[in-house]
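Design a sequence for this backbone.
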């Protein structure tokens, strides 16, 4: 039985978008979905289901950080049989070629989280997105004519990182730092589901500059449309 999502059976679609910010979930539902219905308000973590291009799609806030994302993704996979999950969130760029508001299609996620250590001990699991979803999103992004990259991010448990660990990630080609994708990919592997993350660069750790809280909540529409079109084209949404 789900503890943090109070939705009746059948209320959640088998394909879902997962923003960290519950207000972004509300924004997506109100501006992109037809006839959205709110199925969850527990702890203010909004969840909605509506239709997009004739497909039933849900959107659920997950909160900040991998432990919070882990709760919601686990319940969605385990109790609501969600098959496809796409995180839509923000990251801080650590690559000079990546600009503010660029879109990143995430194909893999490094992590410093103890969640991986608790599962695998001294083994090193490689959290990876669904290749099918990456391929579909890449094809759609090309047609959208937006600035985007495909690559890896690092999912850190630190927001205020005094050790500047991002510099080491950047040396190995990581495009941005965020806080959730590695856990989503790991849970998708465990439950044999499909997952992807699509990021908008909200600030630039290397070069400086950042977007406002309002911009992050309401204007990062390229990644939202890309995620929805990826689901609509993937043949899994019902």
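Sequence:
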């Amino acid at each position: 039985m789900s503890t943090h999502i109070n939705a009746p059976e059948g209320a959640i679609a088998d394909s879902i978008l997962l923003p960290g910010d519950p207000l972004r979930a509300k924004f997506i539902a109100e501006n992109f979905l037809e006839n959205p219905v709110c199925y969850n308000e527990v702890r203010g973590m909004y969840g909605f289901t509506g239709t997009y291009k004739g497909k039933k799609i849900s959107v659920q806030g997950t909160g900040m950080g991998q432990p919070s994302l882990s709760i919601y993704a686990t319940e969605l996979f385990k109790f609501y049989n969600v098959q496809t999950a796409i995180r839509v969130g923000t990251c801080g760029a650590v690559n000079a070629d990546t600009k503010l508001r660029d879109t990143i299609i995430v194909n893999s996620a490094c992590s410093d989280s103890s969640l991986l250590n608790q599962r695998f001990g001294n083994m090193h699991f490689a959290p990876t997105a669904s290749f099918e979803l990456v391929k579909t999103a890449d094809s759609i992004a090309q047609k959208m004519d937006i600035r985007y990259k495909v690559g890896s991010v690092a999912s850190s448990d630190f927001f205020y990182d005094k050790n500047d660990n991002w510099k080491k990630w950047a040396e190995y080609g990581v495009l941005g730092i965020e806080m959730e994708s590695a856990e989503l990919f790991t849970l998708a592997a465990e439950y044999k589901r499909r997952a992807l993350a699509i990021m908008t660069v909200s600030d630039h750790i290397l070069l400086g500059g950042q977007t406002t809280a309002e911009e992050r909540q309401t204007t990062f529409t390229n990644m939202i449309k890309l995620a929805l079109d990826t689901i609509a084209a993937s043949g899994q949404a019902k």
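The longest helix spans residues 66-79.
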